[in-house]
Structures are given as structure tokens and as C-alpha cells.
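S., here's the first fold you wanted:
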Amino acid sequence: MNLIGIPFEFVGMTYYQCPFDITIGSKVIVTNDFGTFLATVSKVRKASDQECEKENFNQLFPPIDRIANSDEIKEDEKLISYRKDICSFAQKQADELSLDMDILNCFIDLSSDKLLITYLAESRVDFRELVKI
């Protein structure tokens, strides 16, 4: 069983099962606690015998959903500027609300019903009003 490493800015490196050979740089669809995303494979390794024997192997290493198709890859490329616009808008709104935070990035779930925004702040930020906007 291959394990593929997918780096997510918001959760770090996550490993997924992939029952077939795959290469670094391949685009895949994966689901995590934050949604379903198109991601790029950055590591590939074989699962060790010890890992395969673990009862919770499927929880530790969930399977990939599928290899991304060309339409999904094109759609994701189109969303790059949209994500930048969202980040700019969110930063502008945070500034207007006098929130001491820097918007870092945003991620759109493939179903487009979830938006995840990462930010940096030196202390706790009450961003409930920003979420409403």
C-alpha cells in the first residue's frame, strides 16, 4: 500500500492511502475535517508492516477520494485569482473592523459551500463580525 503525503497549510502534512502507483506532483481529491480539496502529492512511500497491522490504519491514513480529472484541475486553476480576491476582501474588512490580524490564505471546498481562511495574529481575535460579513 502506498502512502502519499499531502501538505495542507492549515493542518500540515497528512498521509493518505493510495492503492496504486502515483507520482509526486500528481493532483488528487482528498477529504479531511475541513472539507474536500484538490491537492498535490508531495511525498510517496510504502506503508510499513507495522503501520498496516494497526487496527486504526484506515483512520490514520484515509484513502484518497480519487485522482483529479482535467476539468477539476482547470477549475482549481481558475479559482486562484478568486481566492486572492477573497483574501484581499477579508483583509480589508478585518482592517475596517480594527482586527489585528493578517489574512494569509483561503481555501475553497470543492463543493464551494465552505471557505477556510487562515490568518496570523499575535493574540486572540474576536472575528465573529468578520465571519458575518
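And the second, which I think is the more interesting of the pair:
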Amino acid sequence: MQDIILLRGQKLSYAKESIHLRKRILSKDEHLLLKDVSFTLYRGEVLGVLSDYETLYYLKDMITGTIEPKAGKVKSEAVIASLDVMDHVQNKHQVQMFLSELFDEYMSPQKVDEILKELYENPFFKRIWYKNVDSLTRTELASLLMEASTYIEADIFIFCNMSNHLSDGNSVRFKEIVSAFEKEGKGVMLFETDVEMIKRLSNYFLWLSYGQVRYEGGVQKGIAYYNKYLKDKS
């Protein structure tokens, strides 16, 4: 791993506004989701981030610039690809159109056409090519995003809660893809609600509890700390 920083989050905070007008007028936030969260992603690093899905969802959107943090900054000049099954479960486009729009964000139209022709010859993609994305099972959609990521020209890949949707066989393939990105010097962020995938694939660990950093550091030590917390809690 080279000490080249691809992405840095500095003291990120985010809170949902209250649904009640009076509280909004008084600037009282109903639900604080993140508070003073900082992290650094290096080239060739697989950073596992453990938290509840809502926290991960908003952190992902802050990193990609979809929403602005209430406080703090995200610093990066890297190209970021964010892949989350739940972002697409209501997409009514055919798979071929979905892939075309996805790849258009990262490469030239000519390259997109070449990739689409290649994917159409793939048995998995050929089977779902003319299906609407919202008709796919979540396992199929996870497989689609996983395989599509190998063609995306990005510096950072964020995979959000993939372990919740991948089959056992696809989990093996996912490990191959993440390992390949790591060797290529990409930055990978695994946003997970379960610690097992982080344990297997990450080389650095960030645990967020109630929107705050509970642990940041090595994976083995972090998993032991997390398991002790669960044992004490039970």
C-alpha cells in the first residue's frame, strides 16, 4: 500500500431536519446521524466501515456529493463509483439501458458500446438483458453491480451492504474483485451492517456507533473490540 491519499473525510456531521415546522424554525434537528466522523482512504486500501444502514447511506451520499454535510468536509480529486443495491430497486429501465447510463458517467460513448457488446455475450447478462431492473431479485441486482464495477473507470469504489444481497457463490467472486482492485491501487470502501465481510476483505476498520467513531484502526484488533462490546452488551 502506498501512502497516497485518495479520499479524506474531516469531522463530518449530518442530521435530518425535523418534520415539524416549529422545530425547523428553531433549528432543532430531529435525528443526528453522524457527528465528527473523520477518516482517510489510501491508495490500495480496503476500508471496512461498520454501522447501521441509515448512517452508511447518508455517509455514502456525503462522500459522493449527493448531499452536503451539516459540518465538516470531504476532500478528494478521485473518481468515485458508488454501488448500492437499494439505490436501484425501483429503477424501471431495462438492464441494457441501466448499464449504458451507468457506464456513461465514467467513460466515452465508444468505450461504452464496446463494453455493452461484450457483456451481452456473458450468459448472466444475456439472461437479464431485456428485463427491467426493478424486476430483478436483489441477488441478481447485486451480481449485476458487482460485475459492472469491473468495467467502471474509477479510483474509488464504495460497495454498500453487499453482503446482505450476495449469494455464497457470488461472495467468492466479490472477494476476487475487491482483491483485484486492491492490487491495482484502487481505494475500496466496504460499507457494511455486518462485520463478517469486513473481517474477510478489509485491511483497515472503522466502526461507527450512534453516528460517532467507536473504533478506527487495524481489523483484527477492531473485530476483537467489537465482539467484546457485543458480549458485554448481551
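Why I say that: The first strand starts at residue 5 and ends at 17. The beta strands are 5-17, 29-42, 46-50, 71-75, 80-84, 156-160, 187-192, 204-209, 212-217.

Talk tomorrow,
H.
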